[in-house]
Amino acid sequence: MVFWQLTIDANDPTLLARFWTTALGYQSAPPTEPATTWFAHYRARLGGEAAFDDRLFDPTGAGPAIWFQQVPETKAGKNRLHLDLYPTGRDNALPLERRVAIVESKVAEVVGLGATVERRTRHDDPDDPVYYVVMHDPEGNEFCIS
Question: What is the separation, in whole angstroms, between the first and last Cα of the chain?
């Protein structure tokens, strides 16, 4: 197994860490369970501190750690990698109108945290209905909610 984390360049790592903590339901300290080598490494790096201000961890231990790395330059151009958030759990059994309501609730939550909406896309194809919202975090990084 390869241990990995997602590293995101940031002008203000603390700002983005606070935003994504809420957007993803992550936390700023590594969980104690599962007792992985990766989480033990980060708990040791914390030392006497309660939490990191530039790193996030999935409290269940299932998702990757995220590090917001401070860089001097601002974002330029479109991301080559972005996050897709699925508050519906990708449950296509839900009626499209219910999925739209769940997505819009999450959109409202992250807009309240400083995100902006770029566009909404909806396809009412009876065989494959689609609804997603392209957004930007507080530093302009693209992500989608579907």
Answer: 30
Question: Cα–Cα distance between 146 and 142 in angstroms, integer?
Answer: 13
Q: Which residue has the tokens 């807009």?
A: 111
- Using one digit for the tens of pLDDT, what is the confidence trace for 19-77? 999 999 999 999 998 888 888 999 999 999 999 999 999 999 889 999 999 999 998 88
CB atoms near residue 48 (< 10 Å): 4
Domain borders along the chain are: 5-70, 83-145
Q: In whole angstroms, what is the distance from residue 112 CA to residue 106 CA?
A: 10
CA distance 110 to 129: 24
Statement: the pTM of the whole predicted model exceeds 0.85: yes
